[in-house]
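Holo prediction. Input below; ligand is magnesium ion.
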Amino acid sequence: MSLKPSSTRAGVTRIWHTLAFRLTAAYASAGLLLVLLATLSLYLLLVSELNKSTELFLKDKVNVLRTMLQERPEEPDGLREEVELESAARRYEQFYICLLDPQGKTLLMTPGMENQLNLSELPKLLSGHGGSAISMRGNNGKSFRVIAATAHFGDAQDPLITMEIAVDVTQTEGLLRRFRLWFWITSAGMLVLFPFVGYHIARQGIRPVEEITTTARRITSSHLGERIVAEGYPYELASLALTFNRMLDGLEDSFERISRFSADIAHDLRTPVNNIRGEAEVALARARTIDEYRDALESSLEEAVRLSDLIGNLLFLARTESPLTHLRLEPVDVAELLEGVRDYYDASAADAGVTLTSAGAGEAVVAELDRTLIQRAVGNLVSNAVAHTPEGGVVTIKAHAQVANVLIEVTDTGVGIPLDALPRVFDRFFRVDASRSKASGGTGLGLSIVQGIMQLHRGTVEIASKPGAGTRVTLSMPARGQSNSLLS
Ligand SMILES: Nc1ncnc2c1ncn2[C@@H]1O[C@H](COP(=O)(O)OP(=O)(O)OP(=O)(O)O)[C@@H](O)[C@H]1O
Ligand SMILES: [Mg+2]
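Structure of the complex:
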């Protein structure tokens, strides 16, 4: 597979029309978006948690100082220690405290606080923040979070002291800055990595499709043996390959039948034509008596009749397959129709020493059928049964209704059909014993015609046979006809 656009019969395939490109683009943008969203939400969570912890630290300090001011105003040393010494001992996250009396005069202050912060600006910045911390930039470029609160020095009647507490958050700011920097570096990396990974994943996924396409390209009517080896394919594509292979099996089989059919037609047409030609050439080779000419003409006529029957059958078959062919339906008493067929074949059955009976003639089975076609189908079955039943055998024709269908059965006690030949008896030109059937005049089209007639009636034909015991063919068709047009 390649992302390179290739040209097709319809024109040039643009790169964004390829599945590989679309999958890559979808994978890359979805992946990138998810990573950006995840990282951004982590960053926001981190900022909020750090702010919260700084705020808690400051509020904690406020509480400690307030307690010291209110409950132990007589111990100024503890207060001084808290304000002046504790912060000085810290290297990181240093905090600064400033206590102001009601007049704004500084009572106590962490040493160095006035160098770090612009204290005169503080009251303005803190006003309106209702006791929550604010961010402030220090004099040396450092970052601070500052909070202000009040407390009474002793009882409520005592003066109100203002406490200003600032904590150095430069370390935290640095951490967040490094986080942001890494965020942008990783995003840039993802921008390159995701399309690359997406392309390889798409490549893997599409490879079977490409192999199927390549196989399909290799297939032509004379080269139908190609099959897709679906080993290792994902389930969906394996089932596509399987369906494709099955379709090829069907096509190969159909092509084989068609080419065999064409060869059979050519052969079966050539034989009588050659015979006529041979007869004519022999007759014309020298002067003949009237009787010799008559013989030659008679056998030529026989061959011509055979030829014309064959062509007639082929034309009929072609018509049964045409979607434009319709039936001439009429209510038919099926039992009566079967009796007609029996009467027609009675003489030839008797000649062959076979008993021909139509059972269940008393049962009234009326169905909407094309009388001529059904007569022809049943006639073909009876002629087969008689032809393959030895002297003394019995051929039975019977009809009966079954739910919405009418069934016609032709049963014989003849030689039967070998099991391996059974699935092919409906193929055109198929004869179990080609040489023997040929002698008896069979062309191998009779059962194909029966099948064609059944298809026109939207019915089915089934054959069951036991070699040496006999054969039964069952025609089943809807009692109420499905077509109302004419077979011209
Ligand atoms: N009742 C049967 N008993 C035994 N074999 C049969 C029977 N019916 C059909 N067959 C076998 O099936 C083959 C195909 O039958 P089909 O009717 O299509 O052709 P055919 O009888 O040989 O020729 P056609 O019917 O065109 O004159 C026959 O050649 C025969 O070998
Ligand atoms: Mg036949």
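The pocket of adenosine-5'-triphosphate (ligand 1) is lined by residues 380, 384-385, 388, 412, 414-417, 425, 430-432, 437, 442-448, 471 (CB under 6 Å). That is the main takeaway for now.
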